[in-house]
Amino acid sequence: MRLGRSLYTAVTSVVACSLFIGTLSEGRNSGTEEGWCLAGYAQRIPVALVCCVVVAMGVIWLGWYWLRLSRAIASIARLLDGGRTQDTENGPQTLTLLKESKVETLCKAVSEHLDGCTAHIAEYEKQIKDLRLQVQLSQRREKNTEAIIYSIRDAVIVIDEYDKLLMANEAAGQLFGFDFRNAQHRPLGELIGPDRVEFAEFFSYSRKSKNQAARRELGLCQDGEQKIFDCIVSCVYDQSRQVCGIVAVLHDITREKQIQQMKNDFVSHVSHELKTPLASIMAYSEMLADGEANDEKTRQEFCSVIQSQAQRLNRLIEDILNTSRIESGLIKVNKEIVSLTLLIEEQLQMIKSYAEEKNITVVGQAPIVFDRVCVDRDMMSQVIVNLLSNAVKYTPSGGSVRVEIAVDEGASLVRVTVTDTGVGIPQDEIARVFDKFYRVNANKKQATGTGLGLTLVKQIVEKVHDGRVFVTSQVGVGSTFGFELPLATRESVGVV
Fold first, then answer.
1. What span, in angstroms and rounded, lies between the C-alpha atoms of 433 and 178?
2. DSSP string, 322-350
3. Is 213 helix (H, G, I), strand (E, B) or coil?
4. Are residues 371 and 484 in the same domain?
């Protein structure tokens, strides 16, 4: 490298001198006065010399700069390929240490960078794992929500802000007649049909009013039957408190309405039935108190009316209480093994006097070998009396009432029927004859009653004794009321 610098200096000096001499020679040999004058001026003012020196210095500076650049490139090349070292005693060790130091620094920097990247990757992996868990939880919650909605017995409909169906359950599909699983994103008006205008208007009203919840009773037709639904419509809001959907739940309250009506009818009937005997009792009591009964016969007549009306009132109250006790399961039952034929015969003896007054023939049946049943004697007596009294009551004079007993050992049942030749029951009213306080409209003038006798028969036979009641009738021909009871086992009655 030193030899190169010396050689470079010599060459540069020679070039500079050559340029100076060449300039002087050109001025002297020009043959003109101007040339000599230039040469003369050059002798007095060394302009050319200065120019040559400047050019020479520029060449030297460029060469020096190139030399330094060459040295830097050579040093880098030696460091990279482990080439020749400088001609010094500690040169190899210094370069080795320098290389090791730089490599260690580079390795340390790379290691730190990799550690940082690893930490970032671990953090990203944790975030990805958390996001996956959140997605799984969201999917699970969505599935649970759908499962809950699908399992609800009430009709549930969810629509978006554009009146398109988002979700519905099977009850809603049955109510409005569409496939609830394949009806998503279809307009609500297209699904519910044009005859449910009131329901669609209720949706529209709830959206416009933006009420959190609105409630209304709607009458809708399902399976050809008019039903009443308690409809609750709730708006769903987004983060900006704008309505983004509507949820409707329709609960069938037809049965509740019927029960409510039955309760109202019950109160009305009880009030009416209680007022009738009470009015008679009060009227005859006032006449007795006012001294209107002047003789003993009139007083006995008034007292007889008061007594009969009091008994009627007592029977009515007892029937109501017994019906209520049976329905609530609070009635005390004392079952024993009895012969049903003998029990019926006892009640026939009581009813025959009443039948003879109306010139009605009552026909019983001879005892059967095995007709034992396990029943509450008093309750079953009341059942038989109610059936017999009803048959006599609605049979005109000259008619007949027949009681028959049949045993079905194969089914282990005993069947009792009471057949009359009375006025009969219209076919459209037969299904309601066992309802509370219900009386056949066409037969109300035929006889008085409370409408609780047959209800009590049904409650005693079916709820207390696990039996069954039935009825057949034809207007103008007569009616047949009956019941079935399970036979008592032979072991329970001690028969071998």
1. 39
2. HHHHHHHT-----EEEEEHHHHHHHHHHH
3. strand
4. yes
Strand partners, 161: none
For residue 463, give the CATH number of its domain.
3.30.565.10
Contact, 416 vs 380, CB < 8 A? no
The reply to whether 233 and 273 lie within a common domain is no
Domain containing residue 289: CATH number: 1.10.287.130
Range of 280's domain? 265-327
Q: Give the angle 357-363-366 at the CA atoms, nearest 5°.
A: 140
Residue-wise pLDDT for 152-199, tens only, equals 888 888 888 888 888 888 888 888 888 877 878 888 778 887 777 788
The one-character DSSP state at 475 is T
CA dist 198 and 100 (Å) reads 89
Percent share of the chain, pLDDT over 70:
74
C-alpha 378/C-alpha 381 separation (Å) is: 5
* Residue located via tokens 């709820």: 463
What is the C-alpha to C-alpha distance for residues 233 and 98, in angstroms, rounded to an integer? 82
Q: At 469, is the pLDDT very low, low, confident or very high (cuts 50, 70, 90)?
A: very high
CB 415 within 8 A of CB 405: yes
- Does 270 lie in the same domain as 243? no
Q: Please determine, for residue 483, whether its predicted confidence score (pLDDT) is greater than 90.
A: yes
Amino acid at 25: S
Task: For residues 75 and 63, give the distance between their C-alpha atoms in angstroms, rounded to a whole number.
Answer: 18
Torsional sign, CA 105, 111, 113, 116: negative
In degrees and rounded to multiples of 5, residue 232 shows phi and psi of -115, 120
What local confidence, expressed as pLDDT, does residue 40 receive?
46
Of 442, 446, 450, nearest to 426 by C-alpha is: 442
Average pLDDT over every residue of 286-298: 82
How far apart (Å, rounded) are the C-alpha atoms in residues 287 and 182?
Answer: 78
pLDDT in tens, 196-237: 778 878 877 777 777 777 888 888 887 778 889 998 888 888
**pTM listed for this prediction:** 0.48
The pairing of beta strand 468-474 with beta strand 478-486? antiparallel
pLDDT attached to residue 480: 92
Residue of 453, 411, 211 whose CA lies nearest to 318 = 453
Q: How far apart are CA 329 and CA 438, in angstroms?
A: 23
Partnered with residue 406 across adjacent β-strands are 415
154 phi, psi to nearest 5 deg: -75, 155
What residues contact 344, with CB distance under 8 A and at least 6 apart? 364, 365, 384, 403, 405, 416
User: Rounded to whole angstroms, how far apart are CA atoms 312 and 243?
Assistant: 64
Helices marked H in 152-183 — which ranges? Answer: 170-176
